[in-house]
Sequence to fold (95 residues):
Amino acid sequence: MALLLIGTDITGVATALGYRCSVQKVNEIAPDEQRAEIVSSYLIACYCGVIGVGLVSKAMGAATADAIFAAIIATMATGALIVELKVGNRGGVRN
Fold:
């Protein structure tokens, strides 16, 4: 039980840090006049992902739902990396 609690704590901290850093990055790159709309859209997308995992988990099982959403996240991360490498800091994006 102790190992389960420690693993849960570590996973919770890692998730929180990843979420916090991603929201910070969205805030940094969003134009001032559109920041609220962009951050709101980002948060809605995150919560839709959580609801989607729950629905797929109920329909197909937790392992299948995790695999599907891990593949989606990996694909999106790869796409973001490709865009970052091609575009870099051009296009009016602030540092």
In short: The two ends are 44 Å apart (CA to CA).
